[in-house]
Amino acid sequence: MRKYMLFLGALAIASSTYAQTYKTKFSGANKQVVMDMDAKQLDIEGYSGDEVIIEASDLPKVPQEADGLRPLSAGGVDNTNIGLSSNLNGDILRINVVLKGKATYKVKMPQDLNLIIKKRNSCSCNENGMSISGIKGSIEVNTNYEDITLNNVSGPIVANSSQGKIKIVFDDKMPEKPSSIVSYSDNVDITVSEKAKVLFSISASDGNMFTDLDLKPYTPDPKTIEEEKKAYEEARIIGRKAMESDAARAASDRVAIRSQSSGTATTYAPGNRAYISQSGEGNNVVIGSTNGVVYSFSDGQYRYWDSDRNAPKYVLNEPQTKISIRSTRGNVYLRKKK
């Protein structure tokens, strides 16, 4: 009898830890996966297939009273049997965690998809951070305390972490469009090929900057200065109008208005360094306030790429790919790919 009870106990433990899988077909270069994932660990890998495959382990237990019921939250109803809600709307696949707890999720997705990871709860975090590798599409990820690790990526990146480290290894094929990488309280570590052609804008307000790349100081010609000044002003005007619009504030499920210094804001106040990040739907906007424009592509065109026009700028070979790197309290490490 004792052996039988031990067997049942072992079986119960195994049932809560073994991996379970959800699959759905979804591929296409212009399609996007939008994820709101609170997990113990989140690993995402791009591959050449046409399915989004999610493997879940360490799923939280559900009470006996919930037998025959499905988890439900603001993110939707669990239609995956792994604590997630998966909903397809046109070219956007939304995946939300609906079962509270700290599961581990491993995701494989077609490498050409665009990826957006956002946080539903400002105080929640992926305890072991998140890793993303092999993605060729654009990546936008905003976290609070999590470390962000991107490896072998070749699309444009918008990465922000309030208190986590950011580490990015670019593929030899660099993005055609600009990238913005910001950590407010920790280090930023970027690796590129020594043959890459990049214009960097780099600042570490309270930290230091280090590199083993053959960088040259960049001084734009007068024509470029005037063009960037005009682009900056255009982006600033677009951003102010977007942030002041009642429609933007009302569409809380489509527009995130965040303050770079104090977290989420619901209204635009001049001088708060707020920015809107609206991705995957309608007119895309990633833009800063009057104190610092990240960039805007509200009409499909990047108008300005740098959040600090006074930051030092350096060229690696030729000024083609534009990458803006910021760390407020940490160091910036810019490395040569081995």
What does this structure look like?
39% of the residues are buried. The protein has a domain at 19-209. The chain has 338 residues and is mostly beta strands. Strand 23 and strand 24 (285-287) form a beta hairpin. It is elongated and about 70 Å long. The chain has an eleven-stranded mixed β-sheet with strand order 7-8-2-10-12-14-16-26-18-25-20, with no helix packed on it. The protein has helices at 2-17, 222-244, 246-250, and strands spanning 20-25, 32-36, 41-47, 51-57, 72-73, 76-77, 84-89, 92-97, 104-110, 114-118, 130-133, 139-143, 148-153, 157-161, 166-170, 179-183, 188-192, 198-204, 209-211, 216-217, 256-259, 263-264, 274-278, 285-287, 313-316, 321-327, 332-336. Residues 1-16 and 246-303 have low confidence and may be disordered.
Please name the defining characteristics of this protein.
single chain, 338 residues, mainly beta, eleven-stranded mixed beta sheet, ten-stranded mixed beta sheet, 27 strands, elongated
Our estimate of the beta-strand percent is 35-45%
Task: Write down how many β-strands occur, each being a DSSP E stretch of 2 or more residues.
Answer: 27
What is the average of the pLDDT values? Answer: 75
In angstroms, what separates the terminal alpha carbons? Answer: 60 Å
Strand order of the largest sheet: 7-8-2-10-12-14-16-26-18-25-20
Largest sheet composition? 11 strands, mixed
Structural class: mainly beta
Fraction of residues in helix: 10-25%
Number of helices: 3
Radius of gyration: 21 Å
Helix-strand string: HEEEEEEEEEEEEEEEEEEEEHHEEEEEEE
Instruction: Report the uncertain regions.
Output: 1-16, 246-303
Shape: elongated
